[in-house]
C-alpha cells in the first residue's frame, strides 16, 4: 500500500511498491479574473502521471491559455493533476473554452477489464464506453444550470470543444427584499458526463474553484495565499483519491482501476490500491511558525471514500532531529484494517480524541457565524464532521512547536478504507502572534437562517421524501433513488421557483445488500440540515454535499432532513450520490425548477426500470 498507511488486503501480504512521500507542498497554477472577466481555454489530453512511485496513464487538464485575466505562471502551462485553480469574485464572468483533446472513445486509456465483472449494469470500463466524452461542472456554485452555463447534460466528444459562460451572481434579490452576492468560499470543478464521471474524476480531472470577496468576507480579509501585513497564510489542499491496479492481469502495467474493480465488494481485488493524495503528492510538508494562524482550504475531490480528518502530534522522541520529520518506523495509528482473521476493528474515536485543537470555519463554501472548535465535543453523528466525497471544509490551525501529522482515520464502509497520513506539518522558528483565531464571522447573505419561520423566504411550501437504496439480484447490483435509476428524459422532482422545501432522505436497508452510506449532492442550491437520524445536529451548518448515514441500530434505515430555498435560477439539473461509481450506475435524479412548478412532461416511455 502506502507509507504511513496500514494494509487492507485480504491476507495482509507485504506490498510490492513503496511510494516515496513528496516534500514541500506543491501549489497548482492559479488563474484569476481581472476587471470582471476570466477568459481561458483548457485542454484535456491523455497524459502520463507519477504519484509517489506509481506512474500511469490518465486524463488531465494539461493545456491552459489565458485570454483575459491573470496567471500565477509564465510561459506554457505544464500542469497535470490537479487542474489549475480558478479564482473569481461576485459579479465576475467566467468564459471557458473546454477543448477535448482525448482520442476517440474506442481508444480509451482504460483497457478491457481482465478477469473482472462489473458490480452493476454499467458493464465495466473498456473501449466503447464513452470514457473520453466529457463536460464541465462547477461543484457548489449558485449559478445558472442551463447552457452555456453549468449544464451537466452536455456531451463534448473527443475532438470537440464548448464555450461555457458562467456569471457569478452579485446583488441577487432575496425573498425578504434584501440583496445577496454569491458567497466567497471554497468550491471545485470536475467533469459530469453520466457514465464516465467516476473514471474521469478518479483519474484526477478536478481543480479548485475559489470565489473571493476581500471587501465583504471576513476570512478573505484575514487570509491570503500571499499574505500582506496583518494577514495570515492560506494553504490550498486539493485532496484527491486514486484507485490503481498496480499489475494489470493483461499486460502487467499500472493503470487506473476499472469499474469492476471500483465496485468490487469485500476486500479489494488483487494488486488494487486505493489512497488519497494532496495536490498530486503523497504526504507533503506544510510549515508553520509557533502560534501562527493559517487557513487550510480542504477540498475532497475523491470519488468514493469519506475523509475523516485529525491532526496528531508526533512524540518528540519519534521525530528525527535533523529533518523534524517522523522517524521512518513511526506508526501514528496503532490499528489496522480488516484481515482474513475477522471483521475490521478501527478505534477511530479514540484516535480522534487525541487530535490537537483546530477550528472549522466553513463547510462547502459557506462561512459559519463563529469558528467551530474541533474535534467536535457534541456531535449527534459522525456525518457531522466527516467530509464526504465532493465536500469541502475550511480550517484554521494554530499549533505549538513540534511535528504533526494531518491524518485520515479510515472508514469501515469502504472495504475497510485504510488510515493514512495526508500531510506532515512542521511547526518551528520564531513565534508569530500577529493573528488570533477570530471569535465571530459573518455568514453569507445568500443563506440566511431559518430561525424565524415567519420571515419571508422561511415558510415551508412543500415536503418530499427520497429513498436511496442498493439491491442485488441475478442481473447485478442496482443503485436507485425511489426504486428507479437515472433517466435524462424523466423529471423526478419538480419545484416552483422561489419555493422553500423540506426534504427527508432515507437510506434504505435492503435484504440483499444491507446498509451503506451515500453522500448526497444537489446542484445550484445548498441546504441546511435539520435532523440526522431523528436528532437535531449539534451545529446548524449549510451544505451542498452530505452523508446520508446508516441507521442508529442494525437493520434500521438512516435519515437526513433538510431545508432549502430554490432561488434565482430556473432549469434542469440533478441530485445524486457523490460516490461517483454509484452515480454512474444510476443513483441520480433529474429535477426541474420552473415558475409555478410548470415543469415539462416526462417522457417516461424512454426510461426503463432498473
Automatic annotation (TrEMBL):
Residues 1-23 are annotated as: Disordered. Keywords: Metal-binding, Oxidoreductase. The keyword Mitochondrion does not apply. PROSITE patterns: MULTICOPPER_OXIDASE1, MULTICOPPER_OXIDASE2. Residues 133-215, 475-595 form the Plastocyanin-like domain. It comes from the Bacteria. The keyword Oxidoreductase applies. SUPFAM superfamilies: Cupredoxins. This is Multicopper oxidase domain-containing protein. The lineage of its organism: Bacteria, Pseudomonadati, Myxococcota, Polyangia, Polyangiales.
Amino acid at each position: 500500500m502506502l507509507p504511513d498507511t496500514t494494509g487492507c488486503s485480504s491476507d495482509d501480504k507485504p506490498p510490492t511498491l513503496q511510494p516515496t512521500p513528496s516534500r514541500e507542498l506543491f501549489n497548482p497554477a492559479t488563474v484569476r479574473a481581472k476587471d470582471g472577466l476570466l477568459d481561458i481555454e483548457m485542454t484535456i489530453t491523455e497524459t502520463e502521471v507519477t504519484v509517489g512511485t506509481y506512474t500511469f496513464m490518465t486524463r488531465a487538464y494539461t493545456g491552459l491559455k489565458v485570454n483575459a485575466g491573470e496567471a500565477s505562471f509564465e510561459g506554457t502551462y505544464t500542469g497535470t493533476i490537479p487542474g489549475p485553480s480558478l479564482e473569481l469574485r461576485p459579479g465576475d464572468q467566467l468564459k471557458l473554452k473546454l477543448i477535448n483533446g482525448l482520442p476517440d472513445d474506442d481508444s480509451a486509456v482504460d483497457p478491457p477489464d481482465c478477469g473482472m465483472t462489473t458490480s452493476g449494469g454499467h458493464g465495466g470500463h473498456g473501449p466503447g464506453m464513452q470514457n473520453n466524452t466529457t463536460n464541465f461542472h462547477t461543484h457548489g456554485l449558485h449559478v445558472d444550470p442551463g447552457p452555456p452555463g453549468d449544464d451537466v447534460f452536455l456531451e463534448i466528444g473527443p475532438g470537440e470543444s464548448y464555450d461555457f459562460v458562467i456569471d457569478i451572481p452579485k446583488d441577487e434579490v432575496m425573498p425578504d427584499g434584501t440583496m445577496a452576492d454569491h458567497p466567497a468560499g471554497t468550491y471545485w470543478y470536475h467533469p459530469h458526463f453520466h457514465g464516465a464521471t467516476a473514471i474521469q474524476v478518479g483519474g484526477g480531472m478536478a481543480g479548485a474553484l475559489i470565489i473571493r470577496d476581500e471587501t465583504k468576507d471576513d476570512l478573505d480579509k484575514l487570509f491570503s495565499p500571499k499574505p500582506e501585513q496583518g494577514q495570515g497564510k492560506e494553504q490550498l489542499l486539493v485532496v484527491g483519491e486514486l484507485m490503481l491496479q498496480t499489475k494489470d492481469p493483461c499486460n502487467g502495467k499500472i493503470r487506473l482501476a476499472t469499474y469492476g474493480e471500483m465496485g468490487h465488494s469485500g476486500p479489494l481485488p488483487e494488486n488494487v490500491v486505493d489512497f488519497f493524495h494532496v495536490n498530486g503528492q503523497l504526504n507533503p510538508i506544510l510549515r508553520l511558525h509557533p502560534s501562527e494562524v493559517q487557513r487550510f482550504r480542504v477540498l475532497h475531490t475523491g470519488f468514493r471514500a469519506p475523509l475523516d480528518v485529525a491532526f496528531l502530534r508526533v512524540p518528540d522522541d519519534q521525530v528525527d532531529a535533523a529533518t523534524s520529520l517522523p522517524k521512518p518506523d513511526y506508526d501514528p495509528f496503532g490499528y489496522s484494517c480488516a484481515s482474513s482473521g475477522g471483521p475490521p476493528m478501527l478505534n477511530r474515536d479514540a484516535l480522534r480524541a487525541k487530535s490537537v485543537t483546530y477550528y472549522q470555519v466553513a463547510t462547502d463554501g459557506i462561512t459559519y457565524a463563529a469558528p467551530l472548535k474541533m474535534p467536535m465535543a457534541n456531535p449527534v453523528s459522525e456525518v457531522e464532521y466527516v467530509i464526504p466525497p465532493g465536500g469541502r471544509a475550511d480550517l484554521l490551525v494554530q499549533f505549538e512547536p513540534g511535528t504533526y501529522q494531518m491524518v485520515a482515520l479510515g472508514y469501515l464502509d469502504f472495504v475497510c478504507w485504510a488510515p493514512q497520513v495526508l500531510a506532515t506539518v512542521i511547526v518551528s522558528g520564531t513565534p508569530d502572534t500577529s493573528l488570533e483565531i477570530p471569535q465571530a464571522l459573518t455568514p453569507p447573505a445568500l443563506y440566511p437562517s431559518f430561525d424565524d419561520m415567519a420571515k419571508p423566504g422561511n415558510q415551508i411550501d412543500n415536503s418530499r421524501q427520497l429513498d436511496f437504496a442498493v439491491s442485488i439480484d441475478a442481473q447485478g447490483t442496482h443503485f436507485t433513488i425511489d426504486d428507479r435509476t437515472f433517466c435524462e428524459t424523466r423529471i423526478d422532482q419538480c419545484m416552483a421557483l422561489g419555493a422553500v422545501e423540506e426534504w427527508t432522505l432515507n437510506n434504505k436497508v435492503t435484504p440483499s445488500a444491507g446498509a451503506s452510506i451515500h453522500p448526497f449532492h444537489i446542484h445550484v442550491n445548498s441546504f441546511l440540515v435539520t435532523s440526522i437520524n431523528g436528532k437535531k445536529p449539534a451545529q446548524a451548518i449549510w451544505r451542498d454535499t452530505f452523508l446520508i448515514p446508516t441507521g442508529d441500530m442494525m437493520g434500521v434505515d438512516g435519515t437526513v432532513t433538510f431545508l432549502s430555498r430554490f432561488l434565482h435560477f430556473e432549469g434542469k439539473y440533478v441530485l445524486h450520490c457523490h460516490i461517483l461509481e454509484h452515480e454512474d450506475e444510476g443513483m441520480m435524479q433529474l429535477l426541474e425548477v420552473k415558475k409555478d412548478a410548470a415543469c415539462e412532461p416526462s417522457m417516461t416511455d424512454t426510461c426503463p426500470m432498473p
